[in-house]
User: Which sequence fits this backbone?
């Protein structure tokens, strides 16, 4: 993913959080930890004797929209273009944004 990110001439989006904060702009991201908790919960119910058929299927939909501020800046994507309720992560405070790398 790092090589794709370095060579990309367009923003890279994903629906899972594996590369969030490293190489993707973001999007409606499904957190792997949430999916894992659901799977473990189903496994515990089965180990406690419940029938898998009784548990049924769980559909995991898209998560809340999350975006990486650094990637929004890289691709000149305005936060005003994001869906209402989107969260923006990795924001540098305005004071530090003019200093640059140390």
Assistant:
């Amino acid at each position: 993913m790092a090589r794709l990110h370095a060579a990309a001439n367009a923003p890279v989006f994903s629906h899972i959080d594996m590369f969030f904060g490293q190489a993707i702009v973001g999007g409606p991201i499904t957190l792997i930890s949430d999916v894992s908790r659901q799977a473990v919960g189903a496994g515990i119910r089965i180990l406690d004797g419940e029938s898998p058929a009784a548990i049924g299927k769980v559909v995991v939909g898209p998560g809340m929209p999350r975006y990486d501020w650094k990637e929004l800046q890289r691709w000149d994507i305005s936060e005003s273009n994001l869906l209402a309720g989107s969260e923006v992560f990795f924001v540098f405070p305005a004071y530090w944004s003019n200093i640059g790398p140390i």
In short: Residues 96 and 102 are 11 Å apart (CA to CA).
